[in-house]
Every structure is written in C-alpha cells, then in structure tokens.
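Action item from last week, closing it out:
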Amino acid sequence: MAGDPGRARPAAAVPARGRSARLSGRGAPPVRLFVALRLPEPVRAALGAEIERLRRLAPAIAWVPPENLHVTLKFLGDVAPDRLAAVHAALADATAEATRFDLVIEGLGAFPAPARPRVLWAGIGEGHEALAALAGRVEAALGAAGFAPEARPYTGHVTLGRARAPRADPALAAALAAARARRFGRVRVERVSLMQSHLHPRGARYTELAAWGLGGSRENVDDPG
C-alpha cells in the first residue's frame, strides 16, 4: 500500500480531457464522488436499447441515461475538496500494480430480488473475479486514507434503473428472467476513473475528474465514450 519504499512510483493521474481536479479548496463545498469503470459506447448503446425495452414495461422506474452507465468500484459520497489529494494518492496506489483485464456485461437482475425490485442491473460474467480484486484494491487504498469501508461485500454490476416505490411487477420480473443470459458486450478494463456526480432535478450528470491507467501506465488512455 502507500508508503512502501520498494514499490515502483505510482502512475500519475491522467486529467480527463485536459481538466485538472482541484486538490485543495478549504471552505469550498463538498463534491460528490465515486470511483468507476467507464463503458465503451457500443456497450452503453446495447444497454440503452435494453433499457428502452424495459421502460415500456415499467415506465415508473427511474431509468439511467445511457451516457451515465458505468461500473462502480467505490462510492465515496460527499468529500471535502481538501481531501482530494488523499483520494488521488490512494487511487494511484491502488492501480500501480493492478493488471488490465476483460469483462463481459451479461444478464439482468435486481436488488433485493426481481419479484420486488429496488435496483435493476446488468451483471458481470467473465472477468467478475478480476473486477472484485480491483475493487478490493481500491477499497483497501481508500480505507488506509481514512474513508469508511463498505458495509457489504462487493458485487459488480451496471445499474440500469431504480424504483421510486418498489412493488411486485410480474411482467418486469419475467423480462429480467428472460434476459438472464443476454450479453451486452465485452469491456477492456484499462483504467480507473474518479467521477463527480452533479445532482439536478432532472437527474445526475457525471464528470470524469481524473483517471489512472492500470499497471502503472503513464500513457493517456483513450476516452471510452
């Protein structure tokens, strides 16, 4: 972890599209942050098409816009700007010796259960073990930096929608079951992104503040979108 003198120097954060995250700002309002894997456009398009099919069955669900689809590694919540430097250092440490891998987005499901869904998701097939290992690195590094640990074990997924008032919906449950093995695409995981969530009445908007290449790479990684 951070502070190991025998470890190679961690990769520097790659600012997203030239934007540099503010690493200081005492007195400034907190920023709402999460750590994520961004998805390439073809995968987001496939998931977006599935969302449109499901929307016809359950229009009351708050469906996620395709441009916001991602895999969360760690939700940080509201973070004081003067703690951004610690977040950056932790993510540099977490990714320095991580290896790149592929994962497959496949299948649909719901938390806590399809019979009465609160969160609807697309699952992870191939690559789920490597994804959990990467999430564990992120969790450990941020925990060492003083951020609260997750209360539940990590379960990788892509959130598609949230029920404002969960209720039994047999038609939706049947649609989820029918898509249990449906594949939405392969993702080459090459970087970890620090994202800011901007809350608005019409829904959240996400901004990538910085990214770290896996394996200590210092080269820029192309924007997956």
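Closing note: Helices lie at 41-57, 84-95, 128-144, 170-178.
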